[in-house]
Amino acid sequence: MPKKIENVGCPYCGVCCDDLVVTVSDDGKKILEVENACAIGNQIFHHATGSERVTRPRLRQPDGTYKEISYDEAIDYAARVLYNAKKPLIYGFGSTNCEGMAAAAKVAEKAGAVLDNCASICHGSSFLAIFDNGYPSCTLGETKNRADVVVYWGANPAHAHPRHMSRYSIFPRGFFTGKGQKSRKIIVVDPRHTDTAQVADIYLQVKQGHDYELFNAFRTALRGHEIPEEVAGIKREKILEVAEIMKKARFGTIFYGMGLCHSDGRNHNVDIAISLTRDLNDYTKWTIMAMRGHYNIAGPGVVWSWQYGFPYCLDLTKDVAHMNPGETSSIDLAMRDEVDAFFNVATDAAAHFPIEAVKHLRKHPWITIDPNICMASEISDLHIPVGIVGVEVPGIVYRMDNVPIQYRKVIDPPEGVISDEELFERIYKRLCELEAEEAAKGKAKTTPVGVHAEE
Amino acid sequence: MANKITLNMITQRSVEEGVAMEKGKTTPEYFEACSIIEMHDDDVKALGLVPNQLVRVTSECGSVVVKVVKGRQGLYPGLAFMPQGVWANQIVPPRTQATGEPQYSGFPVTVEPANGERRKSALELVQGAVGMWRGDQ
Ligand code: SF4
């Protein structure tokens, strides 16, 4: 009898849907059906048992082809790369569990590496703004139960977080929002008339790259001052109308995304959005939330803050951790050629970094740790496959509002394939051994008998 | 009819890109979902193009051949869109304004008809860029 497993978490986007129902075959090896997931979530589960999975580490040969090696050999290779590098970069972690992130941090600390996650090229701007200005936020349940005004600013959940609107922000009937969509006003701000804009009550087609001016106009209008006839492509009357709606809200949430983080101004677009949220709290209750991308990209921020005090761009090359994103971010380090080994973990830097940065990083050893074949695995020296979190490996993940969720395992990983956590624990152990071997050798060389007595 | 126009490029997600990426970055689905550009009708006309023709898109740091498609999500004239991924990142400027974040959205590109050129696969683009492309074997 096929088995139905309930309350399964989806390992794709920051909505972290935990209401999936997955049907697995008799032998527990094949995923037959996935209920409640969106098209993307569906694909992840069905892809997991596809025939194209890599089940053994693969090492690049002199002729350019890959040869399968054992996990022990792969772990030794990875440890030696770290051991020999002066400043290795360990990057990724959007798509693994917190247990894997903690184990990787241990390795990074031991290796004296730079440790960074995908926030670096995603909501890192948000962190910078939050450091400056705070984060008046809430959980998604509060938006669901209370929000009568919802703003999506530079975010397109219809494409990037497909069930966000139906689970939390627009359609659900919450405790104080019993009429669902009818109890809420939806405002979308985006230069494109996106599919999200289709469901909005009010759509503001802001000129790309001019969000800062528009935020400024809102703040000025809210304080009762004059604003120009048109700002960032939006007419004064429209700005005043929306400002009034915001002021009269009972509870509002601004969800924002890459439209702010990736455009000119980066963190300043976010910090003025936070300032607007704070201003609005003089009149009523407003909150703001970053539309975090991967299902556990909030995880490294939480785990590493707890371990080192910094969420990303951690320079662990010295005795104390240091963070300064313009200096210690993956892209900036790559472009200045400041790292000499690259670990791509649970991400695909070769597809998602600007190609110039990839070219710089590829001058040095490149190791990919990922369940799947991706662009990073195809330009690596070594590709180590691992189990898929949420499908084959259980663990803790942090939703976009930093609520931790326990993900389940629905099937076994392919025979012999290990988890990120186990892999990093074993690399750590191997690093310690290499260090001990070197120390034993070093001692014999530098302190011959009798030297101490003469000092 | 111009033979080259300058547009403001944004690179963002699409649900097709998300589904295709989970299917695999070497699949035909990923190729079709990501090796495209969406432009406003006026800009397509200004170039004398019709949908489904190939264009060469060039930024301050690179160049890539992609297909013009009519997007469902409306742009204003002068604004262009490419789904995030391998093709977009051939032209995304790596400058970060000292924040760590590349200029993924809001950078100038020129678009011109790609005469006789073809779209390259994801593997050919990425492996080609780092000197590892060994041809279609
Ligand atoms: S909305 Fe996100 S978390 Fe939910 S099923 Fe879709 S991809 Fe998965």
UniProtKB/TrEMBL annotation, chain A:
GO terms (BP aspect): methanogenesis; respiratory electron transport chain
Any GO CC annotation of this UniProt entry: membrane
This protein's UniProt keywords: Oxidoreductase
Domain of life from the UniProt record: Archaea
Keyword Oxidoreductase: yes
CDD domains registered for this protein in UniProt: MopB_FmdB-FwdB
Molecular-function GO terms, alphabetical: formylmethanofuran dehydrogenase activity; NADH dehydrogenase activity
Chain ranges of the Molybdopterin oxidoreductase domain: 53-220
Keyword check for Cytoplasm: no
PANTHER family recorded: FORMATE DEHYDROGENASE H (PTHR43105:SF14), RESPIRATORY NITRATE REDUCTASE (PTHR43105)
Protein name: Formylmethanofuran dehydrogenase, subunit B
Provenance organism: Methanoculleus thermophilus
